[in-house]
Amino acid sequence: MTFALEVDGVDKSFGGATILRGVAFAVEPGSTTAIVGPSGCGKTTLLRLIAGFEKPDAGTIALAGRVVAGGGWAPAHRRSVGYVAQDGALFPHTTVGANVGFGLPRRARTPARIAELLEMVSLDPSYAARRPDQLSGGQQQRVALARALAREPELMLLDEPFSALDAGLRANTRRIVADVLAKAAITTILVTHDQPEALSFADRVAVMSAGRLAQIGTPREIYSTPVDVPTAEFIGDAVVLSAHVDGDRARCTLGDVAVAANGVHGNARVMVRPEQIEVTTDGAGVSGTVVDVEYLGSEMLLGIRLDTGYGEVPERVTVRRFGATALTPGDRVGIRVLGKAVAYDL
Ligand code: ATP
């Protein structure tokens, strides 16, 4: 199979500061990949290299089997790539229609084609006559997407396109955009700060850390078997405990727990997700006392102090419970781990 995108051994520095180091991954045609990572880790730089706005110092980038950077060079306008920036970056002094038309070859720049593109992103064609500042933030983002779609790119790069939108609009805009891209079978790469967005939007999630690709995998792989503790903590809530691992079992504050066998042995750390921790009121499991209850609407967070510890004792754990609970501070409970923990070397 020819990959839609292959990034291999890409390095990039600016003014002596290394921004990307040995970044390598491949993307299947028609798939959606979310790139996540802390601020400044190089996500936007990577997208700009793929788009052709910057050149890598080392390594290669190939689009649909054609090398476009490193051992060959195709500038941005010679790549079949759409790019939507965080703020949409519409041309402010012209109409929505002209903005969308900018993405079209001159002979295809017709009102009918512009209307069709606006409809694709669920905007009424009458918006073509408006100026960008007469649209809401979510509508502007959709115009930016329509402009990028006009070029009929094989690859769409979205750089935090929803981050300026409030929660409701964000979910709605995201759904519309995901739908449009899926229907057109356009390979998509999305940079986002929002972990739930990455997990729900993408087929694969790439986690970056300080210019390197820490892990790439399906949302389930990334969430359930993160490669290291920083990745585990970046992609969701994580309970990390000192432990002693022997084969597929570990002893830790939460008792004797099952671990996914990954070669880690002896003194180590284990990670479980809060929803893997079950609270019992029949005495089963490791005993402890509820110390606080945080109500979050659809779920509750229970802080539990354990009676005994293990190693450097994180004696308090936070447990997630869906729905209501009658538990209150001072109640005695048992806790136990469901499923498997993940072990890491110290
Ligand atoms: P954020 O999530 O905050 O957008 P990011 O992961 O997208 O961050 P980048 O925008 O890729 O990170 O920036 C990574 C680093 O590269 C930053 O320290 C930034 O200042 C630096 N950088 C990016 N572009 C340039 C440039 N053209 N010249 C010099 N430094 C740059």
TrEMBL record:
The record ties this protein, via SMART domains, to: AAA (SM00382)
Alphabetic keyword roster:
ATP-binding, Cell membrane, Ion transport, Iron, Iron transport, Membrane, Nucleotide-binding, Transport
ABC transporter domain ranges (all copies)? 5-235
Protein name per UniProt = ABC-type quaternary amine transporter
- The catalytic activity of this protein is classed by the Enzyme Commission as 7.6.2.9
Q: Which GO terms describe its molecular function?
A: ABC-type ferric iron transporter activity; ABC-type quaternary ammonium compound transporting activity; ATP binding; ATP hydrolysis activity
Can you cite an annotated GO cellular component? Answer: ATP-binding cassette (ABC) transporter complex
Entry keyword annotation includes Transferase: no
Q: Which domain of life is it from?
A: Bacteria
Query: What organism, scientifically named, is this protein from?
Result: Rhodococcus wratislaviensis
Keyword match ATP-binding: yes
Output the PANTHER family linked to this UniProt entry: SPERMIDINE/PUTRESCINE IMPORT ATP-BINDING PROTEIN POTA, SPERMIDINE_PUTRESCINE IMPORT ATP-BINDING PROTEIN POTA
